[in-house]
Amino acid sequence: MTDANSLKRRVVSTVQRLVANPVARRLPITMIETIGRKSGQPRRTPVGGRLVGNQFWLVSEHGQHSQYVRNIKANPAVRVRIRGRWRSGTAHLLPDDDPIERLRNLPGVNSALVRAMGTDLLTIRVDLD
């Protein structure tokens, strides 16, 4: 990763953690809940994605550097809040999937933000129970 990408990731992550995510958690938007790999506590992160059948697809803008992706690696059992309803599932990291192509099939505004703010895109599929 270049120094510019590293700086971009740190700035974007800090703004999200301190400003955007606390506000978004109070809104009725799509959210993924992981279990903290160190704390063991539920961790909720606002995400954009699309429900396709019994799968929820999303793209992480910072890939392996995202805290929720690190939590998924430690424990793939997650919950996703879709249209106000929590659903349990198993998350799968898909490094071989083309995240740019995947974003073309996900909600437009979120996809544009992920492309603009992202540094290391990674596709995630959640198989819902």
TrEMBL record:
Sorted alphabetically, which InterPro entries does this protein's record hold?
Answer: F420H2_quin_Rdtase (IPR004378), Split_barrel_FMN-bd (IPR012349)
Q: Name one GO molecular function term.
A: oxidoreductase activity
Supply the NCBIfam families for this chain: hi_GC_TIGR00026
Q: Kindly list the organism's lineage.
A: Bacteria, Bacillati, Actinomycetota, Actinomycetes, Mycobacteriales
Protein name from the UniProt record:
NADH:flavin oxidoreductase, Old Yellow Enzyme family [Gordonia sp. KTR9]
Among Pfam families, the record links this protein to: F420H2_quin_red
* Species of origin: Mycobacterium shimoidei
Q: Where is the signal peptide?
A: none
- The lineage's top-level taxon is Bacteria
